[in-house]
Design goal:
By secondary structure, the chain is of the alpha/beta class. It contains eleven helices and twelve strands. The protein folds into two domains: about 100 residues, Rossmann fold, CATH 3.40.50.10860; about 140 residues, NAD(P)-binding Rossmann-like Domain (Rossmann fold), CATH 3.40.50.720. The relative contact order is 0.13. The structure holds 2'-monophosphoadenosine-5'-diphosphate.
């Protein structure tokens, strides 16, 4: 059987997903293709999805700006994706379409691959900077995983307050202003930067000072272009352990591919290969 996957979003011409999934297909010894299906916001989204479904793809990924819009067009949405209010992966099971969100699990897997000891200690204290869609996905999964302390620091309280409502009963959380979080940064074992600040082409920017962090903290940035963000460079100077954004990209794709094919591909050397690919872009 030849697999057929797609990505919907706008704009998507620079997406790394075809590069990743074509490698996964090869590594799995499967035949197939992964195509871009750009949907112009001026087009009828419903019609475009109907066309995609009729083309009998096995599944598709969903990116900005359609992660919410896709939900009413699917037959089922798994519980975590419902909680996040966003779907990034749709699976075709004999014409029945189910939506998932692989971002949070992808983040967790990427962290576990590098820092398993942090993941096994649920008393590790976590700070998430930012309160957008990515922060929500990560918060939901970390809270579901049973971490006892996950705080959110953000420019505005309102969006953070929405996320904190998704709390699992084992988790204690509070909102902090960015200034408060900078002051108390030494309290946290893991600090995760989830905003788009510092992304190419405004690479020199960082909204957060890591001056007060613990020397054995793990500092993570979900931005992968550039790989070495200004935020991570600050962390490195403080002697912290680093966690890079491109690894989340690989593991969220790993989980999507697994939902489509039932095969979990090992990431191994793809981490290094993706770094090289990103530097060339
Ligand atoms: P995504 O959905 O991809 O995670 P998003 O929804 O645009 O991205 O989320 C952006 C996050 O970055 C928000 O938390 C936003 O803060 P607000 O909730 O206060 O808007 C934060 N953010 C973006 N630009 C920022 C800036 N210049 N300074 C501080 N925070 C910023």
């Amino acid at each position: 059987m030849d697999y057929r996957f797609s990505l919907i979003g706008y704009p998507i011409e620079h997406s790394l997903s075809p590069w990743i999934h074509q490698k996964f297909l090869r590594k799995a010894g499967l035949k197939g293709e992964y195509n871009l299906h750009e949907i112009d916001p001026a087009a009828s989204f419903e019609d475009e999805i109907e066309k995609l479904k009729l083309s009998q793809v096995n599944g598709f990924n969903v990116t900005v700006p359609y992660k919410q819009d896709i939900i009413p067009l699917l037959d089922n949405v798994d519980t975590a994706a419902q909680k996040m209010g966003a779907v990034n992966t749709a699976v075709n099971n004999n014409g029945i379409w189910t939506g998932y969100n692989t971002d949070g699990v992808g983040y967790l897997r990427s962290l576990e691959s590098k820092y398993p000891e942090l993941l096994s200690d649920k008393s590790s204290r976590i700070l998430i900077i930012g309160a957008g869609g990515a922060a929500r996905g990560i918060y939901v999964v970390l809270s579901q995983d049973g971490f006892s302390r996950i705080d959110i620091a953000n420019r505005t309280e309102k969006s953070a307050a929405h996320i904190l409502k998704k709390r699992n009963e084992r988790t204690t959380s509070r909102f902090l202003t960015l200034a408060e979080a900078e002051q108390f940064a030494g309290y946290y074992d893991l600090i995760i930067q989830t905003t788009s600040v510092g992304m190419k082409p405004v690479e020199e920017k960082s909204i957060f000072s890591l001056g007060n962090i613990k020397s054995d903290a793990i500092v993570s940035d979900i931005i992968y272009q550039p790989i070495n963000t200004a935020f991570l460079m600050q962390a490195e100077k403080k002697g912290a352990s680093l966690h890079y954004g491109h690894t989340m990209l690989l593991y969220q794709a790993q989980y999507a591919f697994e939902l489509w094919t039932g095969k979990r591909i090992t990431i191994d050397e793809m981490d290094e290969e993706l770094m090289i690919e990103l530097k060339g872009r």
